[in-house]
Write a structure and sequence with these properties.
alpha+beta, 8 strands, five-stranded antiparallel β-sheet
């Protein structure tokens, strides 16, 4: 391996890999806004620079291994990068999902818009189990449970939803679980409105 290739590996660890890791964790906590490829790359670069600024002291400590033992140097640099980028991604992801920065600015009377792109993303990223009444485009209604095994898409063009339990309504207006159902998948273009309700989720009672 030549000196040039060593530098390429090292620079990749510093300015490409951290940004990818951080951005992946941030997006896991909070769905991203639409970005162009150029903006996406700038986010990678920004996160990598922040990671390097915070951990530059650690990289400098291992620099002498480059000439003494190249394998040890690369392994330690990679371990530092993976660990630091993971921690940074989790911290930024929590701040973004909880909108802590916006809350702080609002307390200073500096109103900034939410970092969460849609009301769909905002609600489903903050809520746990709940009963729902979904009104379809033909005005028919679906009564279901959105629980731990349910799912909503974060893709901007695929706002579908999966409900793990479906209920029928009896003559006394009680919710009766359909024991044969394995749930239901509903596409975005089928949904007119969604109503969210509290209830006794353990016993399946609304």
């Amino acid at each position: 391996m030549t000196i040039d290739s060593i530098e390429i590996v090292y620079l990749t660890c510093l300015f490409v890999l951290p940004g990818f890791i951080v951005d992946s964790f941030v997006n896991a906590f909070c769905p991203p806004n639409r970005r162009s490829e150029a903006i996406h790359f700038l986010y990678f670069l920004l996160y990598s620079i922040i990671n390097f600024a915070l951990l530059s002291w650690a990289y400098s400590l291992i620099w002498h291994y480059k000439d003494e033992n190249l394998t040890i140097f690369i392994l330690i640099a990679l371990a530092i990068t993976l660990l630091s980028a993971t921690i940074l991604g989790i911290i930024i992801g929590i701040f973004k999902s909880k909108e802590l920065i916006r809350i702080i600015f609002n307390k200073l009377h500096l109103n900034i818009k939410s970092s969460i792109p849609t009301a769909w993303d905002f609600f489903f990223s903050h809520q746990g189990s709940m009963f729902v009444i979904i009104t379809l485009q033909d005005d028919s209604k679906i009564y279901g449970l959105y629980g731990e095994n349910s799912f909503t898409s974060t893709e901007p063009d695929e706002r579908d939803i999966y409900l793990e339990k479906i209920y029928d309504i009896d003559e006394q207006n009680n919710w009766v679980e359909n024991e044969y159902s394995l749930g239901i998948h509903i596409l975005q273009n089928q949904i007119k409105t969604i109503e969210f309700l509290q209830g006794d989720f353990k016993n399946g009672k609304q």
